[in-house]
Amino acid sequence: MAVAAALLVTTNWGVYIWAVDHGHIVESSLGYYINPLVSVALGALFMREKMDGFTKASMAIATAGVLVATAMLGSPPWISLILALTFGFYGLVKKKAGFDPMTGLAVETLAVAPLALIYLASRHLAGEGAFGGPDLGATIFLAVAGPVTAIPLLTFAFAANRITLQRLGFIQYVSPTMQLVLGLFVYHEGISPALVVVFAAVLFAVLIYALSRREPARAPARTPAR
Asked: What are the start-end ranges of the H helices in the chain?
């Protein structure tokens, strides 16, 4: 289970890094908008979490948006779908495994560390390594990227053991919102009509889901008899 989780999150981050480097920040943010809906579906299929009518409507609207965007683009938004599916299944595996968060993250890291070290060694031997090179800024940013990646994964592991996949998924909307803002207003990426359609559908689905959630009322505390 730990190895499966390691491969899923490595694929997720690999695709995400490639997308950011190639100017697809907006499309990658869409993947993390779709991800909570994947978590809802996986929770219903594998964890027997119930879906009410509003949740089913949210799923149907988001799915329709992806299908329409696929028709407009002539092909599915692969970056978004790969990111959504890999991180959705990562959450499912983490919940199924139920590891202690620190232990789970350590085992996942050890599982992929040999592959990472081999790749980094090959890049340095080819003269294309960045860490420790003449660009001090790049070295610092790469070092900071470690905790920036590990801390969210650690807190995600804590959450995966404590709350439902449905709630876990929808809490994560802060991240893709920040990515969308960065892509549009900091890196000035364009957004195609197809992505506008799917963003509108997914955000509408999220709105329906969020407004339909109700916390169970707590019974008032009883005053102890004297």
From this structure: 2-21, 25-46, 53-73, 78-97, 101-125, 136-160, 165-171, 174-181, 193-211
Residue-wise pLDDT for 99-108, tens only, equals 777 888 888 8
Q: What residue type is assigned to position 43 of the chain?
A: G
Buried b (16+ CB within 10 A) or exposed e, 61-86: bbbebbeebbeebeeebebbbbbbbb
Amino acid making up residue 42:
L
- pTM, rounded to two decimals: 0.73
Give which of 8, 16, 29, 13 is closest to 172, Cα–Cα.
29
CA atoms of 32 and 198, how far apart (whole Å): 13
What confidence tier does 89 reach under pLDDT thresholds 50, 70, 90? Answer: very high
Is residue 138's pLDDT more than 70? yes
Residues contacting 89, CB < 8 A, separation 6+: 8, 38, 42
Residue 172 backbone dihedrals phi, psi, to 5 degrees: -80, 5
Torsion angle, alpha carbons of 71, 77, 82, 84, to 10: -90
Residue-wise pLDDT for 42-69, tens only, equals: 888 888 877 778 888 887 888 888 788 7
Separation of alpha carbons 5 and 103, rounded Å: 13
